[in-house]
Each structure stands twice: as structure tokens, then as C-alpha cells.
From TrEMBL:
GO cellular component terms listed in the entry, alphabetical order: plasma membrane
Subcellular location: Cell membrane
Domain Metallo-beta-lactamase, residue spans: 482-686
PANTHER family named in the record: DNA INTERNALIZATION/COMPETENCE PROTEIN COMEC/REC2, RECOMBINATION PROTEIN 2
Keyword Transmembrane listed: yes
Major location (coarse): membrane
Keywords: Cell membrane, Membrane, Transmembrane, Transmembrane helix
Protein name, per record: Late competence protein ComEC, DNA transport
Listed transmembrane segments: 7-26, 32-51, 221-245, 257-280, 346-365, 371-394, 429-446, 453-471
UniProt cross-references to Gene3D superfamilies, sorted A to Z: Ribonuclease Z/Hydroxyacylglutathione hydrolase-like (3.60.15.10)
């Protein structure tokens, strides 16, 4: 595990832990232990090198730029998902000898029907563009590149069209298991709603969007481990299998032999999750040793499972579910002699640092929820799901519907509990503090002392203070694709201002679909990671959806004090309808030239007359932040830009957020020369259909020798400073300017 940390996650921490471990082994002065330790270190390193070499080889095959290709793909039905008019999943490309992500939109009903009726592994011809998966463009955003690398996937294919070829006639064990998984999941689709979600989620490892929406409270209450297929689920299923075949008078040795063979198959059927791998490995170890009339401790079994897991895939250990599974299973082993209350508290303490590192939130009812629902889930819910699923095969629909209603009531109660006050946005703890807290809890399990409890509280308090009272301030340009969203946070969180929210172009549309706000996974994820749950000011430049479309996400999930809109936009009925559900939660304020944004460094320099929030009405903000003068232009056009320098002839800035994503309708050369910026920020989507930024605008910047930093090329842009002195720029993908 230490080697894996040194190679993949945090090189400094990994190397330090490695040195401390070697020093400890050397100080013991036991020759054979030293030799064994060195060998146990070299073997994983060898496996890591081989594994990384395989990933590098896959990367070399993929073109460096997005390339149009026609390929033959092997598609397993359980690896593909159809969602309305789009599809996505994983396919195998024989020519490239690797699996890739695939996604696309249906051209017609025939294409959709083809995938909906796909029930066996088949070959397709696919046309589209192939490229390497990008790393997350924003700090603290889920990193699809890193996650997929842990599954051996490095590329994605944007499919423009596909054509069915033939069924795969190779009846390999893998294909048979995947076909079986699909048929079983397809059968589960006929179940009532709540029972269907539970069966798919905790038996087949397929958490649908319905599952995530229906059980949002599970994540908030820290109960997500109950819905991750792991030890408890495998224990139940092994027990059920053993009971059934024992009843049929099969010998115990025969049953164990079948379990050894079938558990790897179930691993695939249940989605091959990282936490499930741990449970299957430990079960296989136990059964194998039993066959050999050998035994070792549960802790030895846990340690062997960790080592085998790392040899199979060293990146698994950095997945949230895997970390939680191994830590909780270790906690269960170490606390086996503790009482129920003490055990529950210690298990919560050992999981809390990991949860905060990945999720950033903690509900004060988490401890109570775990005390109540872990035994309830174990004794009632999981068996009830298995019973309901089994009864469905015998068409006992009345009993199945009763079970479904019972699960629905359980869901409602969980969400009601999660909706109570007490959800705290803590933020992302420093990785050093996380490690120290976990080690401290392990010492607490050994012996609970006042000193150890106080030290644990001190570590948490230090992490909390570092997050919520930062010495530095920042200006962030989030990568929200084709849109704008900026954060201005002053040191010690004295004020927090959001300029625009980003969003998709259907904000004012009448789509019947439930809106999906990308801010939940981009800007809001970052805000939670830095401990922000309140926003003093949301300044909206104008009405366009790519600037204000995600406003409802912020209003529903964060405490917003004031929303500033350009003068007259409060008469825009389309905008008002969208914010109507939240209208009583904040002040809605018109902003015009000469106004000051309360509790912020900004003054308004535009608009100068009433409008409805169109491009020419954009709210333009000017302020001094971190030793630099900044101006944020919204989507203001050239004509209005010239009016600003007429009204403010001595206006000079250091940094400008270019108007309209770098379009040629903004950034008039006269305006740029007059305000004389040194740095220009551009927020625009990659490969956007408007071809922003326009070459004319780029040429204007070059003639003025202005440094351009773009979210399009650099991902999220962050400027950090202290004591209101000039700081430095950094970006998610590379250092851009200092």
C-alpha cells in the first residue's frame, strides 16, 4: 500500500512513509524480517511497473488529437446504458486491444430500438472520434481519467453513428457471464420501483439515476457503505447458497468447492466494484484455507486481501468505495470485542476522515443513523430485498408490492432524516490530517484514553480552521464549458462573491426533463471542498443561460444572501419564473453604474440604463483583489464598452475577463488599449459551435502583448494571494502565468 501511495497518489507522503517503515524494520534487527520486507516491497513495485507499462502502451496507441475513425466494436449488453435519446457505456475495440468509453445520440428510432433489444454480446461498426480521456478540468472535481485508468480504460469514443454486424459467436466464460448479468438485470426491470432500485443496486452493483435521486439522504447520513456491495452482501449470499444446498443434502466440501468457483463469477455479475473485490478475496481466502485444513487470523486475511488487491490493480486502493470498504472491514476486525455502542462510535470515527476527504460534508445525525440503520439494514432490509426478489420469480405480486411499499417508506424516512438541520460542510481535509486521524482512531481502538481523544479533536480542529479561516484569498474561473462562472473569496472568508453560475442553453426552454445542473459537479463541488456553504453575493451579468442557468442549484443547496442583476432585469418574467421557488430566501437587487456590491471589493461600472438583461445590458464589475485591478465584462458588446471608457476615462486594469467568451462582438481594440490590461481571461467551451474565442480577438490581445489564459486550454484558472499582495496564477492542467 505504501508503494502504491508513493507511485500514484502523493509521492511525498508515500516516500516518507516508506522511509519510516524501512527504518522501523532495520531497528528491529531481525535479519529474516528485513529480507522478507524488502522482497515484499520489490514484488509490488515490479507489478506496479508492469501495470503502468500496460497503461502507457494503451495511451501510445490512441491518437494525440481527436481523430475520425471507423472501428469494429464488441459490445456487451450489460456494459451499455440507454438514457432517453442518448447512450453511453464501455466497448471493446479488437483492433486497439483495449476497452474504451463510448457515448452518442440516436439519429433515429431504429438506432434506439437496436440497442434496446440488444441481449447478447455482439459486434458493431462505429463511426466517430477517438481521443484520450481528459483529466478533470476543475479542482476537486471527480476525475474521470483517473477513475477509468483504474479500470484499464484510457480513451473515449464519440460515436456519430453505428451499425449492427453480428452476434459474437465466441462463447467464452466472460461473454457468458456478462450475458447472464444482462438477462438478470433485464428481469429485475419488471420489479416495482423501489424494489427494482434495491435489487439493481445491492445485488448487481448497478446504481441508476433513480437510485441516486431517491436515496440522496443515504450519502448525507454517511450510510453509503450499506449500499456498496461488499462483505455483508457476500456473507448473506454465501450463507443463502450454503443453506439451500445443505437442505438439498449436498456435502459441505462440495458446497465450498462450488463457492470457490462461483464467487469470481458473482464478482463480474455484481459489477466488479473495488469494495466487492475485497469481500470476494477474503471469502476465497477463507474457503481455500478451509479446504487445506489451514487457518489464520481475520487480520492476516485482511492483510492478504490488501496485498492481492494492490497486485491486481494498484489504483483501486485510491477509490473512495475501496478505501471505505477496507477501513470499515479493518475496524470490524479490531472492534470485535467491543460493545455495540462503542463499536459504532469507533467505526464512525475511522470512516469520517475518509468521507470528509472525498465528500466534504458530515451530518451531525450520522452517528445516530448508523446506530439505528446498520443493524436494521442487516436484519431486515437486505433479507427483505432478497425475499422480494425471490418471490417475484413465483409471480407472488401481492407480497412483492407490500415489500416494495415497505422499502419506499424506508427511503422516505431516510430522506426525511437527512433533510433535518445538521448537514455541515466541513471541506476537504488535508491528506496529512486524514492519515493522522485514521492512525489515531486505530490507537483509540487499542485503548481509549483522554489524551488520544483530545489529540483526535485537535487534529480535526486544525483541519477545520485551515479550511474555514484561510490565510489566502482567491479568484477562480471555473471551467463550466461554454459559459461563465467566477468565484472571489477574500482571506479568512470575509466575503464570498460568485459572478455568474454557468449553465446549459435550455434554461429558459420548456423541456419536460428534470433539469440537470452541471454546477453540482464543477463549481459547487469545489466550493464544498473549501468549506463554503454560504455565498454573500451572486452577481449575474445578464440573462443568458450559459451565465445564469445553474442559479437554481445554488439557491436550493447553498445559503445565498443577495443576488445582483443588471438594472431592469427584475422585470424579465422568464428569469423571475425560474427563481420563483426560492424568491423569499435572498434579496434581489438591481445594479447600475456607480453602485457598490455589498461586502465585496466590487463596484458596478455598467449598465448605465434600464434593460431586460440582454448582452448589451451586462453587469460589469470592477475591483481591486490581491494587489491587481480586475474587470469582469459579462457578454458586453463593443458599443457599450466604448461608453464605459467615455464615463470612466482614467480606468486602468491589470486583469480583464474578456466579454462574450472572446467573441469578436466584444473586446474593441480602442477599449482594450484604453484600459491597458496585462492578462486576459477567457471562459469558453472546448470545440464550441460558436468558435469562441474568435481569432480577431486573439490578434487584438497579441498586438497589445496581453497574456491570454483560457479555461478552454488550461481548465480551471485560480489566482491565490495573501495580505492583498500580488499573488500567482495557476491552472488545473498547467501553470500559466506568475
Amino acid at each position: 500500500m505504501i508503494s502504491s501511495f508513493a507511485f500514484f497518489e502523493n509521492h511525498v507522503i508515500g516516500i516518507i512513509l516508506l522511509i519510516l517503515w524501512l527504518i522501523r524494520i532495520f531497528c528491529l534487527k531481525i535479519p529474516h524480517l528485513l529480507i522478507e520486507s524488502v522482497v515484499s516491497l520489490l514484488v509490488p513495485i515490479l507489478f506496479f511497473v508492469i501495470w503502468q507499462s500496460g497503461i502507457n502502451q494503451k495511451v501510445k496507441i490512441i491518437p494525440k488529437t481527436e481523430t475520425p475513425l471507423t472501428l469494429v466494436a464488441k459490445i456487451r449488453p450489460d456494459d451499455l446504458q440507454v438514457n432517453g435519446d442518448s447512450y453511453s457505456g464501455i466497448v471493446e475495440i479488437p483492433r486497439l486491444k483495449q476497452r474504451v468509453l463510448v457515448y452518442g445520440f440516436f439519429k433515429n428510432k431504429s438506432e434506439r430500438d437496436t440497442l434496446l433489444h440488444l441481449d447478447r454480446t455482439s459486434f458493431f461498426t462505429i463511426d466517430g472520434q477517438l481521443k484520450l480521456i481528459d483529466s478533470a478540468p476543475n479542482f476537486s472535481q471527480f476525475d474521470a481519467k483517473y477513475f477509468n485508468q483504474s479500470r484499464g480504460i484510457v480513451a473515449e469514443f464519440k460515436c456519430n453513428q453505428f451499425k449492427y454486424q453480428t452476434i459474437c459467436k465466441n462463447l467464452s466464460l466472460s461473454n457468458l457471464v456478462h450475458n447472464l448479468r444482462f438477462q438478470m438485470m433485464k428481469t429485475s426491470q419488471q420489479l416495482p420501483r423501489h424494489l427494482r432500485m434495491y435489487v439493481l443496486g445491492i445485488i448487481y452493483g448497478n446504481r441508476t439515476n433513480d437510485f441516486r435521486e431517491e436515496l440522496a439522504g443515504v450519502r448525507q447520513l454517511g450510510l453509503i457503505h450499506l449500499f456498496t456491495i461488499s462483505g455483508m452482501h457476500v456473507f448473506y449470499l454465501v450463507g443463502l447458497f450454503t443453506w439451500i444446498f445443505s437442505t438439498l443434502r449436498f456435502k459441505k466440501e462440495t458446497i465450498d468447492s462450488w463457492l470457490i468457483i462461483l464467487l469470481p463469477a458473482y464478482f463480474v455479475i455484481a459489477g466488479a466494484g473495488a469494495s466487492l473485490l475485497r469481500a470476494v478475496l477474503m471469502a476465497e481466502e477463507r474457503l481455500g484455507l478451509k479446504k487445506l485444513n489451514l487457518s489464520f487470523s481475520a487480520l492476516d486475511g485482511w492483510s492478504c486481501a490488501v496485498m492481492i488487491n494492490l497486485l491486481i490493480n494498484p489504483l483501486f486502493i485510491f477509490q473512495f468505495g475501496c478505501q471505505l470498504s477496507y477501513l470499515l472491514s479493518l475496524g470490524l476486525i479490531l472492534t470485535k470485542n467491543c460493545g455495540f455502542l462503542k463499536r459504532t462510535i469507533l467505526l464512525n470515527l475511522i470512516s469520517m476522515p475518509i468521507i470528509l476527504y472525498h465528500v466534504y460534508e458530515w451530518h451531525i445525525l450520522s452517528l445516530l443513523a448508523n446506530m439505528l440503520f446498520v443493524p436494521f439494514f442487516t436484519v431486515f432490509i437486505f433479507p427483505l430485498v432478497l425475499i422480494g426478489y425471490s418471490l417475484s420469480f413465483f409471480k407472488l405480486n401481492l407480497f412483492v408490492s407490500w415489500i416494495d411499499k415497505g422499502l419506499g417508506l424506508f427511503d422516505q424516512f431516510l430522506n426525511l432524516l437527512a433533510g433535518l438541520p445538521g448537514n455541515l460542510v466541513i471541506g476537504k481535509l488535508n491528506v496529512w490530517i486524514v492519515l493522522v486521524m485514521v492512525v489515531t482512531v486505530l490507537f483509540l481502538i487499542e485503548e481509549v484514553t483522554v489524551k488520544r481523544i483530545l489529540f483526535l479533536l485537535m487534529c480535526f480542529s486544525l483541519g477545520f480552521i485551515m479550511i474555514h479561516f484561510p490565510l489566502s484569498g482567491e479568484v477562480d474561473a471555473f471551467d463550466v464549458g461554454q459559459g461563465d462562472s467566477f468565484l472571489v473569496r477574500e482571506p479568512f472568508n470575509r466575503s464570498i462573491t460568485l459572478i455568474d453560475t454557468g449553465g446549459k442553453p435550455n434554461f429558459f426552454g420548456k423541456s419536460k426533463r428534470k433539469p440537470i445542473y452541471q454546477a453540482n459537479n464543477t463549481s459547487m463541488s469545489y466550493l464544498r471542498s473549501i468549506g463554503v456553504s454560504r455565498i454573500d453575493n451572486v452577481c449575474l451579468s445578464h440573462q443568458d443561460a450559459d451565465h445564469v442557468g445553474d442559479l437554481p442549484a445554488f439557491l436550493s443547496k447553498m445559503n445565498v444572501s443577495r443576488v445582483y442583476v443588471p438594472w431592469g432585469m427584475t422585470n424579465n418574467q422568464s428569469f423571475l419564473r425560474r427563481i420563483k421557488p426560492y424568491r423569499g430566501q435572498f434579496q434581489l437587487i438591481n445594479a447600475k453604474a456607480g453602485d457598490h456590491i455589498k461586502n465585496s471589493p466590487f463596484q458596478v461600472v455598467h449598465p448605465m440604463k434600464k434593460g431586460l438583461g440582454e448582452n448589451q445590458d451586462s453587469q460589469v464589475l470592477l475591483g481591486k483583489i490581491g494587489g491587481l485591478n480586475w474587470i469582469f465584462m459579462g457578454d458586453l458588446n463593443r458599443e457599450e464598452e466604448l461608453k464605459i471608457i467615455q464615463k470612466y476615462p482614467h480606468l486602468r486594469v491589470d486583469v480583464i475577463k474578456l466579454g462574450h467568451h472572446g467573441s469578436k462582438t466584444s473586446s474593441d481594440p480602442k477599449f482594450i488599449r484604453a484600459i491597458d490590461p496585462k492578462i486576459a481571461l477567457i471562459s469558453a467551451g472546448r470545440h464550441n459551435r460558436y468558435h469562441h474565442p474568435n481569432q480577431e480577438t486573439i490578434d487584438t490581445m497579441h498586438r497589445q502583448r496581453i497574456t491570454i489564459i483560457s479555461t478552454q486550454k488550461n481548465g480551471m484558472i485560480r489566482y491565490k494571494f495573501r495580505n492583498n499582495k500580488i499573488g500567482k496564477f495557476e491552472t488545473k492542467w498547467k501553470v500559466a502565468h506568475q
